[in-house]
Design brief:
The complex is a heterodimer of chains A (99) and B (435). Chain A is an alpha+beta fold. Chain A has a single domain, classed as Alpha-Beta Plaits. Helix content of chain A is 28%, strand content 18%. Chain A is built from 3 helices and 6 strands. In chain A, strand 3 and strand 4 (60-62) form a beta hairpin. The longest helix of chain A has 13 residues, at 3-15. The N and C termini of chain A lie far apart (29 Å). With 435 residues, chain B is of the alpha/beta class. Chain B folds into 3 domains: 6-67 and 106-177 and 293-365, FAD/NAD(P)-binding domain, CATH 3.50.50.60; 182-285, D-Amino Acid Oxidase, Chain A, domain 2; 370-434, no CATH class. Helix content of chain B is 37%, strand content 25%. Chain B is built from 15 helices and 17 strands. In chain B, the strands form 3 sheets. In chain B, strands 1, 2, 7, 8, 9, 10, 16 and 17 form an 8-stranded mixed beta sheet that branches. A 7-stranded mixed beta sheet of chain B has the order 5-4-12-13-14-11-15. In chain B, helix 1 (15-26) packs parallel to helix 9 (318-337), helix 9 (318-337) packs across helix 10 and helix 13 (377-396) runs antiparallel to helix 14 (403-418). Classes of the chains: A alpha+beta (99), B alpha/beta (435). At the A-B interface, helix 1, helix 2, helix 3 and strand 6 of A face helix 3, strand 11, helix 6, helix 7 and strand 15 of B. Bound molecules: flavin-adenine dinucleotide (FAD) and iron/sulfur cluster. The site of flavin-adenine dinucleotide has 41 residues of chain B, from helix 1, helix 4, strand 11, strand 14 and strand 15. Chain B: Keywords: FAD, Flavoprotein, Oxidoreductase.
């Protein structure tokens, strides 16, 4: 399955959801790195909102706009210092209607 | 922003936080509850089956106005391979009782209702407020919290950490460790909407009757995982979850698994024509008894998912959350009644009471299951389901092969796939862990 097809599918799913994005205040950041670790690289596949992607220099970047605040990336990459993870400010982020 | 000092601050308005806040407020304690979501439930995800008994112990007449979807009269357990399912099914009219035992719910709606009850009981509830830090005195006792709202800290005699599985506050304050990738599952879920009469027809239901399916097998692609399909009034909740460590290792995408489950020939006809209105993701604590952290200390207690009180084997979490929240509230009420300080020695009462409840007893019973399932996931979630399907098909397909030869073929397939010794040891270990 190609990346493009997968990505399209997740975006369609996220499109159903309600978000209140806090502009200019991403709640997750990737620390600058030369080569991503196995766990960081895994996030480009396993983040359920596909917030992580590989850039053309082979480094992992994140755009957490569609983030559902599950914590998977935190459990895998916070302790090693590869990412900085926080909750969005109160009221911002994903807003589940059903949950 | 708030000058008054509270008896208790409850962080989080999920199942455990609401149970704790309600219990304390209804006994006249001054309770402040803080929730980061726009409304209670806006950050929460559940399957969701709700167990009546545990809520009844907190709000006996909840059936009068709680938003309940369907009461369950039927449960199916399916072992699936790519084209089939082998199932067990239990249905009983006994579940059509005056006070049904289990219901499906929609968490965002349920949490709003529960929170209204908390307010009616007299607690102050502030949403859109993320607690950023625990405040401690010189001796290290937790004496309050800081939030992302303007203004200084807010003080209380005790802080109830009901912050859910991610538990940032507790882990950052060093009260407990962050969950390990092998002790949490990542679950993704979709809400599929269909007219109620279509749901009733497809599942053989009448009125508010409900049916649920729990499924395991090759759908989790050899990872330790479980899928579910729950009927609500006018929607179907459908999802799948696997251990985060397994996801990291296989690099399977959760949404690809979810889509494959939806398109499985046994599931597809059940949701045909539905409109999807939400896609969600959440972690589930799966470490069981051995993962339970320190539950109390000077000025704090931890309840629910924040304390890993979740029974992954039975897919129960909300009832353990509600019960631990209620018990923490009762312990705090008792300590306050004796005019004693909320220090570690006194708050140990919470753990003593919890140890006597079904919460810790159930987790203790299955204490070896997580390790077993984790180290054998390929057998449990790939090999055995395939074998089961082959065995069932061998049994049912009538093709002129003598039955004795079919039986031999089935046995041989099991042994070939897993060796006689491997099979025996898996069975023995499963039995020991389950015991
Ligand atoms: C897909 C899925 C299916 C499930 N199915 C079932 C089921 O069928 N039956 C069942 O019994 N259990 C089920 N569970 C488990 C159940 O959902 C949990 O055990 C239960 O929700 C735990 O309740 P809790 O109050 O401890 O945590 P949560 O319900 O997660 O509540 C935590 C609350 O704290 C808030 N919060 C967190 N940090 C902060 C902070 N710093 N400041 C302010 N607020 C904060 C959050 O916004 C949230 O509202 C399921 C879980 C999942 C993910
Ligand atoms: S918290 Fe979950 S959804 Fe958000 S970026 Fe991390 S893995 Fe993705």
């Amino acid at each position: 399955m190609t990346m493009a097809v997968t990505k399209l599918r997740v975006e369609e799913k996220l499109y159903q959801n309600r978000y209140l994005v806090d502009p200019g205040r991403p709640h997750i950041k990737v620390r600058p790195h030369e080569r991503p670790s196995a766990n960081l690289l895994a996030l480009t596949h396993i983040c359920p909102a596909k917030c992580y992607e590989l850039n053309d220099k082979g480094q992992v970047e994140t755009t957490p706009d569609g983030c559902m605040e599950c914590g998977t990336c935190r459990v895998l990459c916070e302790a090693s210092g590869e990412i900085v993870w926080n909750y969005p400010r109160g009221g911002f982020g994903v807003l589940f209607k059903f949950g | 922003m708030i000058e008054e000092e509270f008896d208790a601050i409850v962080v989080g308005a999920g199942m455990s936080g609401n149970a704790a806040a309600y219990t304390m407020a209804s006994q006249g304690l001054a309770v402040l509850q803080l929730e980061r979501g726009e409304y209670p439930g806006s950050k929460n995800v559940q399957g969701a089956i709700m167990y009546a008994d545990m809520l009844e112990q907190i709000i006996p007449d909840f059936r009068n106005d709680a938003p309940l979807e369907r009461h369950l009269v039927e449960q199916r357990f399916w072992v699936m391979d790519d084209t089939s399912h082998t199932g067990m099914q239990y249905r009983s009219d006994d579940f059509n009782e005056a006070r049904p035992n289990r219901y499906t719910i929609i968490r965002a709606q349920f949490d709003k209702w529960f929170s209204r009850k908390v307010r009616e009981a007299g607690a102050t509830v502030l949403c859109e407020t993320t607690v950023t830090e625990l405040v401690r005195n010189a001796k290290g006792k937790v004496i309050g919290v800081r939030t992302d709202r303007a203004g200084g800290p807010i003080y209380a005699n005790v802080v109830v950490l009901a912050e859910g599985v991610n538990g940032l506050l507790g882990t950052r304050a060093g009260l407990r460790k962050m969950p390990k990738p092998e002790s949490v599952a990542l679950a993704v879920k979709e809400m599929h909407f269909l007219p109620d009469e279509v749901i009733e027809q497809r599942f053989g239901l009448q009125g508010d009757e409900g049916c649920v399916i729990e499924a395991a097998g090759t759908i989790s692609r050899s990872m330790a995982g479980l899928a579910f399909l729950y009927t609500n009034k006018e929607s179907i909740s459908l999802g799948i979850g696997c251990l985060v460590s397994d996801f990291a290792q296989t690099r399977e995408s959760p949404y690809v698994l979810l889509d494959a489950f939806k398109h499985h020939p046994s599931i597809r006809p059940l949701i045909a024509g539905s409109e999807v209105k939400e896609y969600s993701a959440h972690l589930i604590p799966e470490g069981g008894y051995k993962a339970i952290p320190q539950l109390f200390g000077d000025g704090w207690v931890a309840v629910g998912d924040a304390a890993q009180l979740n029974n992954a084997i039975h897919r129960e979490g909300s009832n353990l959350a509600m019960t631990s929240g209620r018990i923490a509230g009762e312990a705090i009420i008792e300590i306050k009644g004796r005019n004693q300080p909320m220090i570690r020695r006194n708050l140990a009462l919470y753990k003593t009471m919890l140890d006597k409840s079904f919460v810790v007893k159930d987790l203790m019973k299955y204490k070896d299951m997580p390790d077993l399932i984790h180290t054998n996931s390929r057998n449990f979630f790939m090999t055995y389901p395939q074998l089961m399907s082959q065995a069932a098909q061998n049994f049912m397909r009538v093709d002129g092969t003598p039955k004795i030869e079919k039986e031999k073929a089935t046995t041989a397939a099991f042994i070939k796939a897993r060796s006689r010794w491997g099979l025996i040891s898996d069975v023995v270990r499963l039995a020991l862990a389950w015991r």
